[in-house]
Amino acid sequence: MPNIISLMHISLDGFVAGPNGEMNWIKVDEELFDHVGKRISQTDTGLYGRVTYQMMEDYWPAAGEKPNASKHDKEHSAWYNKAYKVVVSGTMKNAELPNTTIISDNIAQRVQEIKQRPGKEILLFGSPRTAHALIQLDLIDGYWLFVNPIILGQGIPLFTDIKNKINLDLLSTRQFASGVTELNYAVNRP
Known about the structure:
The protein is of the alpha/beta class. About 30% of the residues lie in helices and about 30% in strands. An 8-stranded mixed β-sheet has the order 5-4-3-6-1-7-10-9, with helices on both faces. A two-stranded antiparallel sheet has the order 2-8. The radius of gyration is 16 Å and the shape is globular. It starts with a strand and ends with a strand.
């Protein structure tokens, strides 16, 4: 059964976006793109909240075809176009999109059904509100975090309203030249 892994850039003080959703503080470069691209290429499903999905959908389908497309744009665009997409959204109900499932109610049950499909890990890209909901429902199996060398002081936290302690096992770490540190955790359920 595929695991759901939350992929997030995070500030040292635990925020995944600024107070108004700003992400201009996130450090990305070719080293990070190459590293992330290798793992993403081994995944076949992307999970998104509505806002992140619409942002991705506005850019990635054609990004690889642009004349000035970078290696990363070409690779991620190709992955995005073939990946199965799951969108958690109360406002996109009944939307019929190719290779995409919209979950607008019974989130726990519907996500469990998605996890029963054959496939590889399911990456939850950004989408803090969706992450919050899935954390509350104990549906996230791991965290793939990129800790950026910045303290925001305020913003949208990754972990909020946690009702029960979540035990984690550290799987790996990696330091990038940009100062970003990758932390890979698996949720340790008894």
